[in-house]
Amino acid sequence: MTKLRVHNLAVSIDGFATGEGRTFEAPFGHAGQRLMGWFFPTRSFGSMSGHGDEAYGPGTTGVDDAFAAATKVGIGAEIMGRGKFGPQTGPWEDETWQGWWGDEPPFHSPVIVLTHYPRPDIVLGETTFLFRNVSPQEALAEATELAGGLDVRLGGGPTIVREFLEADLVDHMHIVVSPIVLGRGVSLWEGLEGVEERFAVEAVASPTGVVHYVFTR
Amino acid sequence: MTKLRVHNLAVSIDGFATGEGRTFEAPFGHAGQRLMGWFFPTRSFGSMSGHGDEAYGPGTTGVDDAFAAATKVGIGAEIMGRGKFGPQTGPWEDETWQGWWGDEPPFHSPVIVLTHYPRPDIVLGETTFLFRNVSPQEALAEATELAGGLDVRLGGGPTIVREFLEADLVDHMHIVVSPIVLGRGVSLWEGLEGVEERFAVEAVASPTGVVHYVFTR
Q1: Residue B51: pLDDT over 50
Q2: B13 φ, ψ (degrees, to nearest 5)
Q3: Is A13 part of the contact surface with chain B (CB cutoff 8 Å)?
Q4: Cβ pair A196:B13 closer than 8 A
Q5: If we measure between CA atoms, which residue out of A21, A122, A48, A24 comes closest to residue A80?
C-alpha cells in the first residue's frame, strides 16, 4: 500500500523549520544553512547535486547519510508546497521560473506543486511539475495514482507538512533536530498538540550533534 | 571554581517545559506527568523519594538514571523560583505552606527561593529555604558563598532558567527532550535565540525515547 513519507525535515530545538525573512537569496531566512548543516557533508547530498543516484560521490557515510539516503528509496511521486518550488507569492508574474534545480531536478518523478495559482505543467528531464489548487486529500489521491504502487514523498515546506499532519495523512516522518535556538520563523509543531499519539517515535543522536526522529504508524 | 548547573530540565519537542493551567493538583498543567515520564522509573528517583542517597533503591540504571543521578553530585546550594516551591502567587496568605517535600526535603543544602515576597527562613531537616527578592547575579553570589566551594544547582522552573540564561550565568545545563507536542505552556527557549553559541552541545538518545542534551562551556 502506498505510504506518504516525509524525509530530512530539519527543525531547530525550539521547533522552527525555517527562519524569518525568506527571500530568493536567503530561502531559509535568518536560519541560513544552519538547519541543513548536517546534510551537506553527506554522500547522499553529493550524489543528489549532479552525480546521479549511481555515482558513489564524496561525503560522509555515517548515520546522517543513512537517513538522508532513505528519501530516495521507493518513491514514485512527490507533493510539495509552492514555497519549496520558488520564492514567489501571489499570481505568477513570470513563468520562466522553473524551480531551483536546473535542467535535471533530483526528483525523477511527477511532482505536484500545491498552489492557489495553477500554471501549465513543466517537464524537466525525468521530473514533471504539476501545479494544483486542491486539498491535501485530493493531492494525495492524484500523487498515489501517479506513483504507480510506490510511495509518495511529502517534500515540504513545513506549512505543507503541518497541513497534511492535521489531515492525518502522513504515514512516516523523519525529522532532524539541530541544537540551535532560532527564536522565530515557521514552526513545524504549531497547532499539532498531541500529534505524537498517532505515531511510534524513535530517536537516534548523531555524533554530528543532530538528533534523527522517526515517526511511524 | 563554583559552577551554576541545571539538571533534569524536561521539555517537549516543541520547547515547552511545563503545560498550561498549573494548579496545586496539576503542578505541570495539562502536561501532567508526561514530561517527567523518563525520570520516575529511575533508581535515582526512587532514592530521592525517601530511601536516602545511600540506599540502592528500585528502578532502572541505564542512561536516564545516569543523567538523573548527576544532579546530586557536588552541589552545595540551590536556587529555585517561587513557582517550584509552591503553587501560590502574590503575597503569602498562608505561611504554613513549606513546599511540596515534607519534613525532609531532598535538597540537603541551603535553597534560595526567588520571590517578590520575602518571608522568614524555613529549616526542614538538612534543608534551609531562604526567600529573596534579588537579581539573578545577587542570588548566585549568595548561593556561591553558601555552597562552600561546591557547585550551585539552578533548580527551575523554566522561567528562572531562562532569566539566568539571559544573564549568561549558566555553566552547565542538562535538558531532556520528550517526543511529545505540548502545544502551549511555558517555553524554555523563548527570547533565547542563538543561546547555543555560548555552549558546546552534546546529545544522546535514550532507548526510552527521550534525548538528553548537555550544554557546557
Answers
A1: no
A2: -70, -15
A3: yes
A4: yes
A5: A122
Q: Which residues of chain A have pLDDT under 50?
A: 51-53
Q: What is the DSSP letter of A141?
A: H
Q: Do B14 and A187 touch (CB under 8 A)?
A: yes
Interface with chain A: mutation pick from B12, B14, B67, highest number of A CBs within 10 Å: B14
Tell me how close the Cα of B42 comes to any Cα of chain A, in angstroms.
20
Q: Residue B178 forms beta bridges with which residues?
A: B12
- Per the structure, the complete domain to which residue A39 belongs is given by 4-216
**CA-wise closest residue to B143 among B122, B112, B119, B115:** B112
**CATH number reported for the structural domain that contains residue A189 in this entry:** 3.40.430.10
> Is the distance from CB of B11 to CB of B17 less than 8 angstroms?
yes
B75 touches chain A (CB under 8 A): no
This prediction has a pTM of 0.91
At A24 the pLDDT is 79
Predicted confidence (pLDDT) per residue in A21-40, tens digit: 888 788 888 998 999 999 99
Per the structure, the count of domains in chain A is: 1
Residue in B closest to A180 by C-alpha: B196
The cell for A92 is: 505568477
Residue A14 and residue B15: Cβ atoms within 8 Å? yes
- ipTM score assigned to the predicted complex: 0.88
